[in-house]
C-alpha cells in the first residue's frame, strides 16, 4: 500500500484505531467488490472487530461505506495534486508545458483507468439526497478544485496560463473533460483514443495555454 501523504496522516491522527481499521477494511474490499457486495458480516469477519464496536463508531453501516468511498476519493485527490504539482513546477516555457500536460492527460484518460473514473462518478452520485455524504465528499472535491486553481494561478503569474480564464474555471474544466471520459467507458462501441487525446490537446493548447 502506498505511503500516506502528510495531509492524510494529519487528518487521521484523531481517528480511533478501531474506526480507522474498519474504514481501511472497506477501502481494501472495494478493490475487488462493489458496494452492494460488501456486508457488515464480511467487514467484521475480516477486521476481527465486534458488531458493537462498529455501531459505536458509526451511526450505521451506510456511514462506514460512505467514509470508505470518501477515503478512496481522497487518495485520488492526493495523487492528482502530486502529479500536477510536480509537472507545473518542472516546466519552464509554454511549449514544454503543453507537451507535458498532454502526456499527463494520457495517463488520466487511459482506458485502463475506466474503473477509477466510474468509481469517482459513483461516489459523486451518492451526494444527492445524502447531506452526510455530500459534506464529506464535498470537502475533498473542494480541496482538489482549489489545489488545481492555485496551480493554474501560479502559471498565470509566470505568464504561461490564459489571463482570460479564471483559475477555478480552468480547474473545473480540467476535471470535467477528464471525468467526462467516463461516458465512453461503459459503452459497447468506443471512440478512437488517439482522436480523443487530439481533442484534449486542442483544449490544452487553445484554452488553457494559448499563444499570446
Order of helices and strands: HHHHHHHHHHH
**Integer average pLDDT:** 90
The largest pleated sheet is described as: none
Beginning-to-end CA distance, first to last residue: 44 Å
Level of helix content? over 70%
What overall form do the CA principal axes indicate? elongated
Please mark out the parts with pLDDT under 50 across 5 or more consecutive residues, or reply none.
1-7
Global structural class: mainly alpha
Radius of gyration: 19 Å
- The total strand number stands at 0
**Total helical segments:** 11
Hey, roughly how much beta strand do the residues contain? Answer: under 5%
Q: Care to give the gist of this entry?
A:
By secondary structure, the protein is mostly helical.
What does this protein look like?
The protein is mainly α and 212 residues long. Helices cover 72% and strands 0% of the residues. The chain has eleven helices and no strands. It has helices spanning 6-12, 17-29, 40-47, 51-57, 61-90, 94-108, 114-125, 131-157, 167-180, 182-185, 193-208. Helix 5 (61-90) runs antiparallel to helix 6 (94-108), helix 5 packs parallel to helix 8 (131-157) and helix 8 (131-157) packs across helix 9. Mean pLDDT is 90; it is low at 1-7.
Amino acid at each position: 500500500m502506498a505511503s500516506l501523504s502528510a495531509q492524510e496522516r494529519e487528518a487521521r491522527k484523531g481517528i480511533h484505531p478501531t474506526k480507522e481499521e474498519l474504514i481501511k477494511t472497506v477501502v481494501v474490499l472495494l478493490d475487488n467488490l462493489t458496494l452492494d457486495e460488501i456486508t457488515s458480516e464480511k467487514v467484521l469477519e475480516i477486521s476481527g472487530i465486534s458488531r458493537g464496536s462498529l455501531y459505536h463508531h458509526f451511526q450505521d453501516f451506510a456511514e462506514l461505506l460512505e467514509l470508505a468511498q470518501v477515503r478512496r476519493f481522497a487518495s485520488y485527490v492526493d495523487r492528482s495534486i502530486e502529479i500536477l504539482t510536480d509537472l507545473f513546477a518542472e516546466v519552464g516555457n509554454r511549449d514544454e508545458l503543453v507537451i507535458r500536460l498532454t502526456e499527463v492527460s494520457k495517463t488520466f484518460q487511459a482506458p485502463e483507468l475506466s474503473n477509477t473514473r466510474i468509481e469517482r462518478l459513483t461516489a459523486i452520485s451518492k451526494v444527492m439526497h445524502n447531506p452526510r455524504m455530500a459534506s464529506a465528499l464535498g470537502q475533498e472535491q473542494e480541496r482538489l478544485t482549489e489545489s488545481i486553481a492555485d496551480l493554474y494561478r501560479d502559471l498565470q503569474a509566470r505568464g504561461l496560463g490564459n489571463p482570460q480564464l479564471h483559475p477555478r474555471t480552468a480547474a473545473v474544466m480540467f476535471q470535467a473533460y477528464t471525468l467526462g471520459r467516463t461516458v465512453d467507458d461503459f459503452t459497447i462501441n468506443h471512440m478512437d483514443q488517439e482522436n480523443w487525446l487530439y481533442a484534449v490537446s486542442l483544449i490544452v493548447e487553445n484554452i488553457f495555454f494559448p499563444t499570446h
